[in-house]
Amino acid sequence: MAKISIDQTKCQYNEGCRRCLEVCWVGAFLMHSLKPRTREHGPLGFRISPIFDTLCIGCEECVKNCRAEAISVKY
Q1: The domain that contains 24 carries what CATH number?
Q2: Average of pLDDT values for 25-30?
């Protein structure tokens, strides 16, 4: 089973990137709001998390398509 990790300090979701959500056809990622919102969560107060990483098949399309190199997959 694969374990997906996202370095939230590198993730560019709050700058408009959603590539991992778009390329993951098994739906391992979830966009969710953070409350209370703080400065570290970015201006929109959202985060992408690999909530459903048990669905991951190890194709690593998320890793290949992450411009910020924020995603890693371990087996």
Answers
A1: 3.30.70.20
A2: 96
Contacts of 12 (CB under 8 A, 6+ apart): 67, 68, 70
Give the total number of structural domains in the chain: 1
pLDDT in tens, 28-58: 999 988 776 555 555 557 789 999 989 999 9
The first and second tokens of residue 57, run together, are 């098949």
Strand partners, 31: 48
| Rounded CA separation 63/28 (Å) | 13
Name residues whose C-beta falls within 8 Å of residue 47's C-beta, 6 or more positions apart in sequence. Answer: 8, 11, 13, 31, 32, 33, 34, 41
- Name the token pair of 32: 């969710």
